# Entry
Amino acid sequence: MNLNFASDNTGPVAAPIMDALNAANAGAAMPYGNDPWMPGVRDAIRAAFRWPEAEVLLVATGTGANALALAGLIEPWESVICHRIAHVEEDECGAPEFYTGGAKLVLADGEGGKMTPDTLRAALARTGTKGVHGVQRGALSLTNVTEAGTVYSLAEIGALQETAREAGLALHLDGARFANACAALGCGAAELADGFDVVSFGGTKNGCMAVEAIVLRDPAKHWEMQLRRKRAAQLWSKHRYLAVQMAAYLEGDLWLANARAANAAGQRLAAGLRTLGAELVWEPEANMIFARLDRAAHGRARSEAEYYLMDDVERPLCRLVCDFTKTDAEVDRLLELFRG
Amino acid sequence: MNLNFASDNTGPVAAPIMDALNAANAGAAMPYGNDPWMPGVRDAIRAAFRWPEAEVLLVATGTGANALALAGLIEPWESVICHRIAHVEEDECGAPEFYTGGAKLVLADGEGGKMTPDTLRAALARTGTKGVHGVQRGALSLTNVTEAGTVYSLAEIGALQETAREAGLALHLDGARFANACAALGCGAAELADGFDVVSFGGTKNGCMAVEAIVLRDPAKHWEMQLRRKRAAQLWSKHRYLAVQMAAYLEGDLWLANARAANAAGQRLAAGLRTLGAELVWEPEANMIFARLDRAAHGRARSEAEYYLMDDVERPLCRLVCDFTKTDAEVDRLLELFRG
Amino acid sequence: MNLNFASDNTGPVAAPIMDALNAANAGAAMPYGNDPWMPGVRDAIRAAFRWPEAEVLLVATGTGANALALAGLIEPWESVICHRIAHVEEDECGAPEFYTGGAKLVLADGEGGKMTPDTLRAALARTGTKGVHGVQRGALSLTNVTEAGTVYSLAEIGALQETAREAGLALHLDGARFANACAALGCGAAELADGFDVVSFGGTKNGCMAVEAIVLRDPAKHWEMQLRRKRAAQLWSKHRYLAVQMAAYLEGDLWLANARAANAAGQRLAAGLRTLGAELVWEPEANMIFARLDRAAHGRARSEAEYYLMDDVERPLCRLVCDFTKTDAEVDRLLELFRG
Amino acid sequence: MNLNFASDNTGPVAAPIMDALNAANAGAAMPYGNDPWMPGVRDAIRAAFRWPEAEVLLVATGTGANALALAGLIEPWESVICHRIAHVEEDECGAPEFYTGGAKLVLADGEGGKMTPDTLRAALARTGTKGVHGVQRGALSLTNVTEAGTVYSLAEIGALQETAREAGLALHLDGARFANACAALGCGAAELADGFDVVSFGGTKNGCMAVEAIVLRDPAKHWEMQLRRKRAAQLWSKHRYLAVQMAAYLEGDLWLANARAANAAGQRLAAGLRTLGAELVWEPEANMIFARLDRAAHGRARSEAEYYLMDDVERPLCRLVCDFTKTDAEVDRLLELFRG
# Structure
């Protein structure tokens, strides 16, 4: 058994998606988004999001989707409010700053990777209050599933959206784990996307090879975003291989099925960890768990399994992520190793 | 028959590369270039280029490879000399300017998409001559196969490199059709790469799905380039699917075999066009042909075949590109249509 | 006699402007443009330009005025068409690229530093014709007086504006020597500014210490431009010292009087040079002359006078510029030195 | 009496500096830093800082000095650690992000505008710890006098420098009020500059019209910085008018005398405020005071005096700044108004 809980990006491509790639690999197809699959992708997302005028741009990386989405929402002299541990702040090597032309990320606090209307207001108080001298308010970027493995409820999102709208912010959702959030909340794409202007709808972590959709609720900036994507070197020539991934991912709600499988594995793992007396530092609501176990437990587990340690204290914190392929046997073997 | 001569990026993925993608699609693999295939890719390129210390970064688009390569070679206040019709100038929507932080492309003239030492010197005379007031000299970027379908000989490249070195320029090769150039010149990768600092080694146009290698002869900037790639949102999480494409492409010199097939189809097409009395505006030395035919010929051909017209005069100019899959039957059918 | 013909930026500050600086130097004044002089400056420019809604931003350098003006007119993926020898292309070390976020300057040809509708159309044919792949059309930037010392007539400007408007370009005038152009054409500011969207109205070369006005015909982008100016570090805290320069410069049309003096000196010099048999490579229509004289003449002159040589051939080309302080005696002494 | 305590940038130009501007206003001088005053400026700063190889670049704004200084120290994918209320973070509309190409400011906490080795270490723990995924460590930027009106002791600076050096950071001092810090500490320029790589040595707030010196201890990047200054549109053509300001400012330690006067006024004001029962939120150690007084006191004072209120609570916080011209009478009148 290859026990890999390092990330949901260590997994393979789901069979239906790989089948679609193989099936599309015949003859010629026009490049740069003019392939015959792309209109269907757009229509499927319009239907799933219940955004009848939405436009969709596909790129290969989540960082690309986020950075392009934000660049389209704000000016270089504006700011993006995000959580202190947001992926756009911590894990993209400054791609948002690069793509936006040097906008500022303003950090909001909050337990478990979740900001609240209060911490959002505190961040708002630090931006856009100094006239011409300070960077201006621009957008709010939320992540769901959060980087802490927690999930914003629809009501929590609604409250944050309301606060943001009052302050004139545009609204972006980093949905690298959009599917896992829907699965956790028991809702559909339309409910989770509701109220946002732009969604980064992730595929890669949930069974695709490399595809993320930038979904624009309002089509007004579609041409600008196409130019931004090309200029950012994110426009594929053999674009059909992006489009068919996304088509297969949407087909029959594979995205939701995969996410349910990943979350189920995550919940099984979380339950087992609790039994072992591990400290779950945040409530694991989807497929990602942050847990403290003693060194000996990690020593046993890491002899066989791959995952990241986040610190080096007496009971080191680890991150464990289940992708859609994780079996009960794999989860149980990891728990067995921890138990010793 | 799906007659598509629009570009070599309209073709499918070569079977050995698709096989490799399927074979790699099992179990977990560490992300971000830490997959088990990448060291072999690097070693194969070191061997093929005879650059024993080279470092290799994979990205999914040719524009990404070029823009990153140039950004690593020059400062924002420096310039890149390239041919007036170079891809970096005409077809990347300003990606080099974006990635470099606003460097200037200085355009060199020359017949058939090829600059000469004289036209290079003329471009040099327009850059770096105004002290602090002007943009400074930075790099030379050559393309081989050129955007006109011609091929620089090794001697021509050597002469340009010498002129550039005397002027203190760094040297970049846009090798989107590197393989086709080698096939046309009857040389290996090492001969074509010789003398350059960084090569964009193309895969996508020649049978890969989406992969280009940035090859750094000198490893000193490897870490900087990794940061640049991440920040540019070009670092894949499921990186194995880039690596295995490139591995299969290099294996048994598939890259060269594909290019030979594409060039052979191109040469068959060129010969046939000459027989028809078409005007070949530049000498087609690889797999891309620019030809003038009368409107009636285009009318017949375009009822069945796809390709681009470049103008709308009495004898419109068309671009015809053969990828590695083009059969004699397809070429002959196109010629038949032209002939009427 | 300190014979300095190197540039009109080697001259001193005109007495009325220095007087105004001294007069303003008492007590406190609110910073950042909130000084009591700025409203008058705006109103004087509105009146002079006959642009009743114009907004005005002051900065200290001509490069700053140009780069900010262009950044406000175009997007990073758009282009600015300018003459091949334009200041924005040759003498600003890439400031337009920096301020615009990497836009491209597209170069138009034309004798004597002047493009024509035909050469403008040729430049247009090279930009905005490749869909998403190429940089888009953005703005036209003209310079009057040109960098060759020639002057566009109002009719020539009108024809270029018409061509540009048809192509959807925004219109910028680099008016570093706006005053000298008005003096040469015998027109007022309103006639020269007519038809442009944004004018860089120069003061520094024509008797100010360091002040240029960015004049926006349409006030819609005033706030954006204020943010851009601040972010570009071009907003003065002790702004009164910019405002009073410009106020004094506008007062009683000092700007025009200074320019007439400079042009008169330039014309006297040009006439003398013709008498000497110097080759005036372009028709000197204002205060700047490009002339070829033999080495011996330059040897004599440069023992006493300062000016720039542009090449090192048998009859070297020199640039001679007269600022508003040049006396007949200085001009005649320079001619005497040339004559030998 | 024009009671203006809004900022030290509302004041006039000191007489010796205005005299120098007038004296320099005769005849021609070569532009762009080639004036006869600049070498003396450089030598005077070398002597004052005891940095024998230092190079000096003059610009007109403090934001320009800071943004250029930081851009020369770090890469776009690196970070600058600064205090949460630093001018570079709060009051430059993102100029550091613009000039650096999108670097990230990482915020350190600390009472009274001062970070400590502990809060610096906390900021370090948030940057450069995520391999290729996070922005890298770059520089530390300190401000002295701080934006809270407090002053770092030399020992406090030394401790922060040591922590920063251990972490590999370059060291920048925002010295917009460098002179006031020296006056408060009773030290010379050399003591305050010691240990930094680049200092923004401010003139504008302390009696100049508009001049700040970027002082590079190590001359290696002098040429790069000259290119950056030009490209940023911060290079003056009539540069003599920057140089003579700085020359007069350095002459006979005018900078120190002005600062002592400003600080003395500030201290008189602080003492008076304490007598009145105002709450001084931070210890005012130089010429800037943050005080809480009741609404009635502000009502009386603001009928006659100008200064900024920072909030609108029951006892509003105000900022009061004394420039070098503030007289005892002005300070006492303001106190009288507060007292009622």
In short: Residues 3-9+257-339 of chain C form a domain with the Aspartate Aminotransferase, domain 1 fold (CATH 3.90.1150.10). The two ends of chain C are 18 Å apart (CA to CA).
